[in-house]
Write a structure and sequence with these properties.
single chain; mainly alpha; 2 helices; about 0% strand
């Protein structure tokens, strides 16, 4: 799978689509593992983006306080 740089919003939107597909039982059994793997990758990407943003904000706040 080629990892392209998605925005946080794009990743969340894609994740929502995958979850909706799973909730409606629209996914063929043969594709469940692929869908879950993709969802897991998107979750990890979102967590990484949130962590990086948090670190950046903390640095900015430290600069204000200093």
């Amino acid at each position: 799978m080629t990892k392209s740089k998605r925005t946080y919003s794009e990743s969340i939107e894609e994740l929502d689509g995958l979850l909706a597909q799973l909730e409606k039982n629209e996914a063929p059994l043969e594709e469940l593992a692929v869908i879950v793997k993709k969802a897991t990758d998107l979750i990890h990407q979102c967590q990484k983006q949130l962590f990086e943003t948090d670190v950046e904000i903390q640095k900015l706040l430290e600069d204000i306080v200093s």
